[in-house]
Design a protein that fits this description.
By secondary structure, this protein is an alpha/beta fold. It has 14 helices and twelve strands. Strands 1, 2, 3, 4 and 5 form a five-stranded antiparallel β-sheet that branches.
């Protein structure tokens, strides 16, 4: 028999938390939200052998509610879900440009277009266009790779003004350094004035004329592959939790191989996937997508980048591109 663990729910108004029941029927959607019929005789007494529990969060045989929903989604529904998330990403990015949002965390697997969408939106902003036309510095900066706490302080100082946006793209080292995290928490504080301090001696700051404190009025976007809510380290989880409480957190919900392939399909259907390639790749788009799907478990990664790399091989050698892909884009068995 299936079991359901009610992580959060209620029965006749009384809360139920972290309790496992034999599952009799459901979960189903009702007038008051999702519910399940369970055998609660062991937990609540023999007279409750068949009751209806209202559900907020739950697992069935260890599978989360989100995973169960995904199993019932059609390909069209998956594409619609992903498209909606990227539309939300555009809206939220615009919010950071306008200064309405101080910070956002964007989470998703590598190579699905997280950074591309954010940077494109920033490059198309009136402030960025004006900066290019007047040969002024653009009001945003993309930071990739490793960064020290001192480097973070300098970047925050250089982009302290209202309308400036700092983008940390897979710059996860700052999320694992306590001093960097404390600087970020100060920069993202919800108080009216966000003042950042560097209390340690630094010749670099002095040489560059950077003060030991300043008020930060800019916005920050984190783009990462790390799901903050799944971190196991208790110490790091507390710090990341503090960041999440200060930021809008957008998970692009592409957790499965199927999700990622359908993201590739979604971009292919717009004509953008092989837009920069010669006609040879565009003409063989369906053949390339079929190859990707059939070899989904062997590819080094399921991503837009991988599709583009395979498109490169088609253009380079239309006759032997599959053999080239098998030797350069796949895991060794």
């Amino acid at each position: 028999m299936k079991t359901i663990t009610v992580i959060s729910g209620s029965y006749r108004g009384a809360p139920i938390t972290d309790t496992e029941f034999p599952l009799l029927a459901g979960p189903k959607m009702g007038a008051k939200g999702e519910f399940a019929t369970v055998d609660a005789s062991e937990a609540l007494g023999a007279e409750n052998s068949k009751i209806r529990v209202q559900l907020v969060d739950y697992t069935v045989n260890g599978e989360t509610a989100a995973a169960l929903v995904k199993k019932t989604e059609t390909d069209e529904q998956v594409i619609e879900r992903i498209a909606e998330r990227f539309e939300i990403l555009d809206i939220m990015t615009q919010g950071t440009i306008d200064g309405d949002i101080r910070a956002m965390i964007v989470v998703g697997p590598p190579g699905v277009g997280k950074s591309y969408g954010v940077i494109k939106k920033l490059q198309e902003s009136p402030a960025a266009i004006k900066a290019h036309l007047t040969n002024q510095p653009v009001p945003f900066q993309v930071i990739k790779g490793a960064m020290t706490a001192l480097g973070l302080y300098v970047s925050l100082y250089e982009h302290q003004r209202e309308g400036n946006v700092l983008i940390f793209d897979d710059c996860d080292t700052i999320l694992q350094d306590e001093l960097s995290l404390n600087l970020l928490k100060a920069a993202l504080d919800t108080s009216k004035v966000r003042r950042i301090y560097w209390n340690a001696d630094s010749h670099k700051l002095g040489n560059q004329g950077i003060p030991s404190s300043f008020e930060f009025k800019g916005s920050i976007i984190f783009i990462t592959n790390i799901k903050f809510d799944t971190i196991r380290s208790a110490k790091l989880r507390d710090h990341l939790g503090a960041l999440m409480s200060r930021c809008h957190y957008l998970d692009l919900t592409m957790d499965t191989m199927r999700d990622r392939f359908l993201r590739i399909r979604q971009i292919a259907d717009t004509g953008e996937l092989f837009a920069r390639h010669k006609q040879a790749a565009r003409d063989r788009q369906e053949e390339i997508l079929t190859f990707i799907y059939e070899n989904r478990d062997r590819l080094n990664e399921m991503s837009l980048r991988m599709a583009v790399k395979i498109g490169d091989l088609v253009v380079m050698n239309p006759e032997k591109w599959q053999a080239l892909a098998e030797n350069t884009c796949m895991k060794r068995s």
